[in-house]
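Fill in residues.
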């Protein structure tokens, strides 16, 4: 019992600290500040894709605006090339992404004998795929963020796998 009282009085494990100006900050507040600081915006992810695509030294990059279709934390990019991208082009794209903080997690086969890589950075995940498809060939970037600097809807949209929520009456 005395040990518990000592812990309560000394603040062991409490997580509060006093700053130089006498301000109290909690562990939760510091965590929220760090999450905001580490949060990637859609523009930052697009910038990483533009820089990586430039390293391939071939093709034309298209980055459609996903906010127009209601997906604010998603980035799609397509680097169209004449033929299936060579290993050197793909390696240079992946090297630039790695230098910009995207960590390699997994390499996997893609459709039509292409290759795909799963990379992550600050609560974002992106699949980078190099393949030849009937519509052409190129390197595709498909990124989704859990936080991207924009307000998220308060309720998720109804989907095919979850029935819509009943209306709330006043």
């Amino acid at each position: 019992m005395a040990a518990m009282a000592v812990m309560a009085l000394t603040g062991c494990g409490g997580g509060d600290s006093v700053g130089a100006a006498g301000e109290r900050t909690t562990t939760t507040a510091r965590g929220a500040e760090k999450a905001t600081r580490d949060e990637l915006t859609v523009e930052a992810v697009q910038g990483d894709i533009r820089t990586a695509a430039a390293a391939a030294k071939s093709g034309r990059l298209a980055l459609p605006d996903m906010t127009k279709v209601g997906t604010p934390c998603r980035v799609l990019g397509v680097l169209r090339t004449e033929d299936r991208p060579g290993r050197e082009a793909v390696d240079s794209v992946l090297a630039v992404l790695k230098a910009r903080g995207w960590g390699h997690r997994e390499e996997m086969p893609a459709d039509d004998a292409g290759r795909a890589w799963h990379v992550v950075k600050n609560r974002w995940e992106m699949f980078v795929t190099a393949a030849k498809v009937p519509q052409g060939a190129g390197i595709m970037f498909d990124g989704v963020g859990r936080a991207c600097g924009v307000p998220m809807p308060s309720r998720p949209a109804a989907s095919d796998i979850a029935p819509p929520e009943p209306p709330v009456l006043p």
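The beta strands are 17-18, 24-25, 60-62, 74-81, 103-109, 115-121, 124-133, 136-145.
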